[in-house]
Amino acid sequence: MKLLLGVLFLWLLSSEGNADDQEEYWTLEALRGLQFSCEQVMFPETPSPPSVHALRPADIKAVTAIGSLQRTPGSGEDLLQSTGKNFLEVSVTTLAALISTFNPSVLHLSPLPGTAGETPDSQARDLLHQAEEIVELMKVDQMMDFQNDWKLITVFFSAESPCSSYASTQLKDCISENLEKLTVVLDFLYKKVPKAFVNLVDSTELTTASLACQDYSNASNPGENQCSYVEHSTFHDNILRWSYQDALEKLLESERFDQKDDFTVVLQPSLQGRNLLLRLGKDGLITTSKTQVEILEEYIFMAVGLWNNMLQPVGQKQPYGVTKIVQCPSQENPYLFTYRNSNYSSSLRTRNTRESSQERSYGTNVPCPDRVPSDTVPVSVHNLKPADIRVIAALGDSLTAANGAGSRRHDVLDVLTQYRGLSWSVGGNENISTVTTLPNILREFNPSLVGYSIGTGTQNSIDAALNQAVAGAIAEDVPGQVRKLVDRMKNDTRIDFQNDWKLITLFIGGNDLCKFCENPVRHSPENYTYSIQIALDLLHQEVPRAYVNLVTLLSIASLRELHASQNNSCPKLLMRVLCPCVINPKDNSNELKKLIYFNRRYQERTRQLVESGRYDTKEDFTVVMQPFMTNMEMPKTQEGWPDDSYFAPDCFHFSQKAHSQLARALWNSMLEPVGEKTDSQPMEGEIVLKCPSEAEPFLRTFKNSNYTYPDQTPNYGSQLQCEDRSPSSPPATSVHSLKPADVKIVAALGDSLTAGSGIASDTLQDVTTQYRGLSWSIGGDKSLENVTTLPNIFREFNVAVVGYSTGTGSENDSNAFLNQAVPGAQAEHLPAQARSLVNLMKTDQRIDFSADWKLITVHIGANDLCNYCKDPDHYSAGNYIKRIQETLDILHKEVPKALVSLVDVADILPLRQLFVDNPVQCPTYLADYLCSCVLPEEENSENLTMVRNAIKAYQLGIQRLIDSGRYDTHENFTVVIQPFLQNLVTPLDQNGNPDVSYFAPDCFHPSQKGHFQLAKALWNAVLQPVGQKADSFDFSADIVLGCPAQNSPFLGTYRNSNYTPVEPTREPIENWGSELSCPDYTPSSRVPTSVHELRPADIKAVGALGDSLTTAVGAKVPDPQTDWKGLAWSIGGDETLEIQATLPNILKKFNPNLFGFSTGSSKETAGFNVAERNATARDMPGQARALVELMRSSSKINFKEDWKLITILVGGVDLCQYCLDKETYSVQKYVKHLQDTLDIFYKELPRVFINMVEMLELSGLRQITASSSECALTAKKLCPCFLNPEENSSELQEIKRANRDFQAEALQLINSGRYEQREDFAVVIQSFFRNTLLPLDSTSKPDMSFFAADCFHFSVRGYAEMAMALWNNMLEPVGEKQTYNNFTHDRSKLRCPNPEKPFLSTRRNSGFGNSDLSLKKTESSVPYWAVIVTAIAGVLLGSLLGWVVSQRRTKKRQRNVDTENNIKITSL
Questions:
Q1: 477 given a catalytic annotation
Q2: Is there a catalytic annotation at residue 1268?
Q3: Share of the chain above pLDDT 90, in %
Q4: Which of 149, 512, 968, 1134 is catalytic?
């Protein structure tokens, strides 16, 4: 069963102040995809159930709502006033429409006028008064029985508005007062309303903006947004709202409203997390960006979310999201869920038990006997003893501000309190015997310590002292904290700023990771580290005598374990709100992988910052990484569950228990030598405080730890030990006697590996930089002493070598010179590179093209392999070798005196190890983007197996090509395979993990260290004899540069190596065919007389009408202007199905004697294909007459007895020319021409099944032309009306609407019943093009392999996909046809006829009678297109549509409808 939400949409558009027709149209367009399909309709039980806990949707007779929704001026609620609608009305009507599917007689009682607030400041009417009025309204309603009918009442309330401005000390009282007011309302309903199910919904999200902003719409400055946003208020508001929800849950769990069996109240999820009206802008300002239609759409989806939650058990309800799936009652639990029938276990008992647990002391003792300071105040930070510390300070966020550290369990509201005196790194409450903090430990060494914070309060309070951490802070806020800290220290009379030693602890980053997914650029590892660098730079510059602890950010993903565990009472919804980017991603999702990557890069980049030595330029200042949290795991209970006792009541901040453990861990880390510090401190066990060693009684630094920072600028130069570096004498005349010193020109072709992408990058963003001067095979930066590349090695033999690239840039830059490699290039792009290279060599004055010996390195294939699984035919070994051959043919023909060094295809599979090994700091979330067929794949997956086989086929094909001797026809040219990349070995570090130092930050391209190794391996391969060359490469191997052999000092070729080739296996054939294996290909036992019993094998002849899409213009690349009719999707018959997929080739599987299909490209072999290039709908009647005559006069068919299949697709030209002559190409004339065409067939042609292929969506053309400048001009000439308008222009909206109207009107014509009186005639809409999806490649750009050179027509590959989609549509029942194209090559996607009903699908054999689809002529005021579009959304129960239409007509005082329309049309 399908629910038609047209009733709802029509109501939404039926106000006194209707929007114009265009807005109505687009509203329906936006909403018609709502899906609601239930297996059975459940009408009301008789009698109705006595218990609310057995209440089904079908039992509900009345739906209403009350609530107070304040409205911000200029907000979405204001925007909707033009339709007279507000959220309460939308929600009531949506719920009523949904319930009406189960109970058509349900009433919806609209909220009383004024409910949503009618003035800007919106003093909304009291909820109790609303409740009283709605009860009276129900009592007097003649359509319902107040005592006996079941009612659904939704109460919307605001949790925040009265309390948001209160001080934290008053919040609990405010919440209690608010709760009492709401309880009075619920008590009233409980007492006065029998048989009621009450939804309680927090609608604060719809009013938050009005509370956060004043003067939102500034009349004097309409272009200026006056509403600013305070960062930390989000945390405050979320805690406040959750506390109110928590109080409500306790109230409802008390069963106060469950004493009667006919009444219940259920708290549904709040609207929190989806601010539907306002969005935060980049500058922290609240902005309105939604149109009336968008807000209306989101209101409906939000109401659908409420419906879905009513059908979810308590405790399993989900946050609201934009969903188009409407849930159905299950057979097991067909009722609305209450606390009782959900078997919901109250948490009150657990809470009370845990609340009574005894508080414990978190003190400790310091076991160190030596607590004395240095004999004299040290001048070096490297000789600093704990007792020398005089001042302590801290910077950071709420974890250092100690939010919730002292809160009682479950008192979430108290997490707003900042217990700074308990803070692990800077708190100073009481003493070490009761409170363990770093200052309390240090006070055991120096009782005169100052700067620690005590008590509670913000960073601005006196007691905060030098704890300048700010709740909600992110890394970019820390420099501001530093400035305030420095000012406080300078102004504190207790501090001798110049002479006192200071200990400053910085810990930041949790909030950055919690928000990173909302703005990955702002919270990138680079920006995070840069902000910390600025802060440390300020301290380094401003603060003398300072030891700075930079505490490594913890692995925050472990917080997910606490959220996922069912063995705690953590506020799960609040956790999702406080840290959405950590909690919300699904396991193994790219979002989670990106979080883990960002987390690791935060850790790694801050380590690199400190180890750069930037802060070790002065004796009295240092920064030391304290890494004890780097790999810290979630603390566990003895049972193995995440232990929430280490967390504050919000399960996000730390409890005092955790603060005390962190203080101990930090102290111990400060005493551990640099390089030997623990990076994974267990939290559960006892952490015993360490003492300074007698030998080194100092806080440890790099210097007093004898630690050497890693070299930040390693040298990747090499030494060449070759004694003989002389050229040939006399000069070499044969490529087989070529010495290294004879080479004058170096060049290279390839992809990003050769272009040098990311070689010297230290950020992901920089990986796109092409460091061509460092490229392994062609780079020439500096010299071999500093940079090891193939050209730099050759320059040791011949200083006059030219052609190498230097610096950075693209292949078009002059410094690229003969490095013509292009990032992202595939084998198909290589011939173009070769032509460019030849042209450069011929025209450059430094090159004697005829006389100079040239070494050209070619390497390509990784990108082909990375995309192989998406399109095995396009990236087949045959295609790959064809492109390599074309490239080498160009060089062989054009370039004299050349040795082409063809580096074999790399086995890239081992690179997967970098993306599946968790300890490795690689961006695993980019695996699909970088190499989708390899990196994200599971071991032994089908895709990985395909690529593995492709690698072998590529390598085998190259070997066969070169061994054929094709390029050894003269003495001055040869091609040599360098096979060392055939078997790649992943480098491992000392811990056995993949060593990422050999790779750029994307872990896919090699770094300079990797290119350093590749260059040496390539040089050695060039020297090695053919047949004895290395066929494996280990990045981490100790590769020594070889020298030419004394007895044969030449570059190795097949001849000077005495190599005899071995004939390899032949590569497979490629094509765009398909496979079809059906159990039954037989025709009917006798020739059917009814089209509704027509089998594929019964078809004797095929024909086609249409335009250039049916003449197959552009199918083949060589001549884009030829009509390749033999390849036409609907009528072509060239080759067989296994080689080329077309509709006739499919049908020939069922009837080999099929007649009428086209072959070749000439008019004489066109068969019954009467389509003409540039034809419009106006030409279709003429084509129809021509086809009838062709069939009538053909001796190959029996005109009267044979069954015929005709396919029609037209309209592209009409739409493309629509704006030039709207009268000629109007939708009315388009449909009139189609009608005339079908009338001819209906009158003249016996026994025929007609495919009317729905006009495709042409808007995708814009994306195609935008991505290809080569064909944009041609395409714009072909289709100006779609391609010339500006984005979002009214002209573009008009042509898109015309496109939809063409589809809708054609649908109405076919479903009118006009062609259903003959038993041997049927016209069926085939809808696979209705929603045209643009095929994309791995870079998310249009996949041009599906399109012809003009970017308008399809290629042979695209036509094959159309044929398969049409065939499958023909077999799909009407009402269940696929309404989108699926352009992904799959040789097994063709379907077989259903064995139980093996016929081509018509409306009748799909279960629709003639009357089901008739659109009777009435004088309805409802626009015809609204009926059509509404119909497309599903099937409307007659009574439901009648009710809606009557409501609309009552408002407009028009005539009643005499009959109701039962509509059953294909769902879109």
A1: no
A2: no
A3: 59
A4: 512
